[in-house]
Amino acid sequence: MFASKLLVLPLLLASYVSAHGFVHEIAVDGKTYTGAQPSDQRSDLSSIIRQIRDASPVKGANNPDTNCGASAFVASDVGTVQPGDSLTFDWRGADLSRWPHNTGPMLTYLASCGDTACNEFDSTKARWFKIDQQAKKPDGGDWYQADLMQGGKGTASIPSNIAPGNYLMRHEIIALHLGQSMGGAEFYPSCSQLKIGGSGTGTPKDNELVSFPGGYSDDDPGIFVPNVYDNNLDYQFPGPPIAALVTADGPAPTTTSKNGGTSTTKATGTSSSTAKPTSTDGSGGVKSQKCKLKKGSGKTGGVYARHVRRAVRRAFGRKVSA
């Protein structure tokens, strides 16, 4: 019996490690950009994806890490894209397993870096406008996020009439499997550095811009969702509406937020240098029901000492000292 439980222990540990995640790759216009795995040490991997320090969820809408993820480092490169280009986002667990969650929306924002190349831009100064949001499928059943568990990818498109320039893209999953409790939502933001070409003129309005933190509150209807598992849920997206520039060319496709209806719009439509690493430290999360994998010290290769203790307790039904 002891031996059989010992064999199960690695599987339990794996479940803790994989229960959180990050954007592993972004693909656009035939190019694939790979992001570094989360680590306290800045990777020397050339990428447009800002590396996060920890794959654990960001907790609390006022947490500074809602900006670009857990104390994210500036990435080295900038990806060149064109208006109308479609991007895919390969979300993975911390150990590169498939994305583990299936409940909650996926949202995408852009922010102008101004005259500064985005691999030198401080994201805490970013003013974000929303270009895409996806929740539940038209039949009112699964969330689009659930596709990621089956190996699918997140998607977003560059608005077809957007003004050219330097832009930071913030693609985000809000996992709501604990969203019935105040502060239970899990935020997984990821930022990537872009240079958009073309000759468009579209820019966001001032009232469409938000900061992170600041764009959400823990009691927003789309973040605190007591009836999140109701098939007839009329889901309300958090944050600002889709920016008007996204639909300026005419009607845009819609994504579904409730059973039997639609209520939101969806967007249509490398240079390299070395930047000094910068980061923003995250804190201020609210106390709430937690996932089993949490931020902390004493980690080795993505496995925390407390994860080992918990897994042992589950397998053997006994306490293990620190």
Characterization of this structure:
It is globular, with a radius of gyration of 20 Å. The protein folds into two domains: 1-19 and 292-322, no CATH class; 21-286, Coagulation Factor XIII, Chain A, domain 1, CATH 2.70.50.70. The two termini are 24 Å apart. The protein has three helices and 15 strands. It has 322 residues and is mostly beta strands. Strands 3, 4, 6, 7, 9, 10 and 13 form a seven-stranded mixed beta sheet that branches. A hairpin with an 8-residue loop joins strand 11 and strand 12 (264-265). It catalyses: [(1->4)-beta-D-glucosyl]n+m + reduced acceptor + O2 = 4-dehydro-beta-D-glucosyl-[(1->4)-beta-D-glucosyl]n-1 + [(1->4)-beta-D-glucosyl]m + acceptor + H2O. Its main location: secreted. This is lytic cellulose monooxygenase (C4-dehydrogenating). Residues 253-280 have a biased composition (Low complexity). InterPro entries: AA9, AA9_LPMO.
**What is the CATH architecture assignment of the largest domain?**
Distorted Sandwich
Distance between the termini: 24 Å
What is the molecular shape? globular
Mean pLDDT: 82
The value of Rg in angstroms is: 20 Å
**What does the largest sheet look like?**
7 strands, mixed
CATH topology of the largest domain: Coagulation Factor XIII, Chain A, domain 1
Concise overview:
This protein is mainly beta and 322 residues long. The protein has helices at 2-17, 146-149, 305-316; strands at 21-28, 31-34, 58-59, 77-81, 86-93, 106-114, 128-134, 154-157, 165-175, 186-196, 254-255, 264-265, 271-272, 299-300, 303-304.
Draw up the topology in text.
Elements: H1 2-17, E1 21-28, E2 31-34, E3 58-59, E4 77-81, E5 86-93, E6 106-114, E7 128-134, H2 146-149, E8 154-157, E9 165-175, E10 186-196, E11 254-255, E12 264-265, E13 271-272, E14 299-300, E15 303-304, H3 305-316
Helix pairs in contact: 1-3
